[in-house]
Amino acid sequence: MTHLAxxxxxxxxxxxxxxxxxxxxxxxxxxCSAARCRNCSSPMxxxxxxxxxxxxxxxxxxxxxxxxGKTVYxxxxxxxxxxxxxxxxxTTRGPxxxxxxxxxxxxxxxxxxxxxxxxxxxxxxxxxxxxxxxRRRRPLELAIPDVSGEALATETExxxxxPAIRSLLAKCAAVMVLADAERLQAGDHAQDFVTLKLLSLxxxxxxxxxxxxxxxxxERRPLALVLTKADQCDRLHNNPRDFATAHAGALWNDCRExxxxxxxxxxSVAGATAxxxxxxxxxxxxxxxxxxGVIEPFGWLMAELDENWNNPGMAARFSWR
Length: 321
What we know:
With 321 residues, this protein is of the alpha/beta class. 39% of the residues lie in helices and 22% in strands. The protein has one domain: Rossmann fold (3-Layer(aba) Sandwich). The strands form 3 sheets. It has a 7-stranded mixed β-sheet with strand order 4-5-6-3-7-8-9, sandwiched between helices. It has a two-stranded antiparallel sheet with strand order 1-2.
């Protein structure tokens, strides 16, 4: 006996899976079900979230040498913003965006600084959030990666090793440079060379974009120089510009020459630190957590960014395809 059945073929489901989706960072087309970009290893959840909210986020480049404190600063910043400290606040989009905050606060609560970010792009933390200020009517969509300092240094020596870094520096709407104030005061300028190379790379990418569009390569993006570990330096919080001039002259002058819209800030997360034995190796740990000057550089950067995006020319310049 033969039994016949009718089954509807839902071909539209196959069509949805076959449709490619562009990576938010490098514009490479990927399969709709891909977790990470096959070209730069950036999370594809950024592209999916962008499609759902129908608004592309502004990429913020946070650069600095390894050990400058990028992970600690960004993790503490996001924790303070999500807790609505001061007039600034943010709302994260997706579970991925909470990982950096969780890693940083958990480590500090147990008396340790978080581990250095691995060099592999698949291990970087990405934060996609909606930034809001009570003085502003419309919120800003932001995407901020915690890029490894070792990967940044490698990209300056071997161009193209990390496609995500090159695309980020070319597309970023604002730049935040982190420098270790404790090392600068001690006369250690080894980390300056990595940052100087990155600033030079940003200038080259800007000129390439301006040449391809037959425009003048005028830099209008804001730059914030953040001097970290200010708790180890006396009177740094009083006048960060004087400290940058005295102890980081080459880096500060390069920032001012390349970015007309610039400012220097001092910040610290730990109120005091000490050295702790970790299996025979001395490791610096926080004695207490006292954030100071964490919100100010980010708030200034967002104010400058908001002013840029009110200019139609700037919006077109940094738009995606």
